Amino acid sequence: MAPPRDSTDTNDADRVREPIVSPYMPKYPDPMSNISNFKIIESTLREGEQFANAFFSTEKKVEIAKALDAIGVDYLELTSPAASEQSFNDCKTISNLGLKAKILTHTRCHMDDARLAIETGVDGVDVVIGTSSYLREFSHGKDMDYITTKAIEVITYIKDQGKEVRFSTEDSFRSDLVDLLSIYKAVDKIGVHRVGIADTVGCANPRQVYELVRTLRSVVNCDIECHFHNDTGCAIANAYAALEAGATHIDTSVLGIGERNGITPLGGLLARMYAADKQYVLDKYDLKQIRDVENIVASAVDVTVPFNNYITGYCAFTHKAGIHAKAILNNPSTYEILKPEDFGMSRYVSIGHRLTGWNAVKNRIEQLQLVDLTEDDAKTITAKIKELADIRPLSLENVDVLLRQYHSAKQTSNHLNVLQQYVNPDQLAV
Ligand SMILES: [Zn+2]
């Protein structure tokens, strides 16, 4: 029998049960996994500023910072104050807004940059240096001994100022593993708050991420932050694998904007984590604010929100095929892993097309309160919709015209004749 729509209209035996343990969680909890205990470092105002179209005025940065704070992200990361005078002033301005999120800035592993960062009043500094053979040969040209000495000097200085400090390598997945582990171990020993792994070129896959983070987890005691570029489409999956392996912090940006095609998108990560531990995500983040911040950022960088975007894409909660629509109307969980209402979104069942089903049409009849139409009427009208939609899809308005005409003609038993009059969807124009 069909599952009930809610638990009040049936007895216990028939009730659709929400699984007590989420089927999306591992059967045996892994104590190292942080799927249910992670933090977000939101980098739209740093990584996002590296997106091709991005130019944020101070006012726009403040607006974005406040909107992200309203979602409840744990940290906001800002462009280095060494980048320009305005960047320096913007760090100061945003640090003084009194937001709940901690404010970080992202600098090179260099004493001059660290001093400037401290001057701006941020809560912490994210320090980065390249360790891959490519970067060592073609970018800064320094060896590992030099990098380690420099890292210790800069970290010690920032800690002595009472600030939080993260040390990250760049292009970590193409760095020598022994080099990586030894530098992370060295900075962990002097009390760095977090070490960072960065897939700067977007080459890593989830299995490689899991292995590297799990190895690092056994080498350092501090927190582990991860930063994933999306060149090959793995940025969300890599973030998830990193948390499973014991990472604690994930970098995101709104709509994923950043260098090249960007990084892990905030909305996509929240969707992924909601599927894994809904309660943790709902308690910590205000998911209804995602759409607002995406609209602010999309318009600021002159792009539109993609049609298939996580959560907010225009078809993210649209159900079309008749068999899907029927099940969705009975119990949305049948074809929905995300509840649209938790994200301030609405479900939409599309009915004016050749794949439609009579259950969806019957549901529309109920919405329009055409109470004296029966299931047989719904089936008859559905057959007509399919016939007309073979010419072209009908809008919801077209369908409503058909339903209302049929309904009023039924009062005089003329409804079947009315249906026969319609041979082209254009006759249903409003
Ligand atoms: Zn990046």
From TrEMBL:
The keyword Manganese applies. GO terms for cellular component: mitochondrion. GO terms for biological process: lysine biosynthetic process via aminoadipic acid. SUPFAM superfamilies: Aldolase. Gene3D superfamilies: 1.10.238.260, Aldolase class I. One of its GO terms (molecular function) is metal ion binding. Signal peptide: none annotated. This is homocitrate synthase. It comes from Hesseltinella vesiculosa.
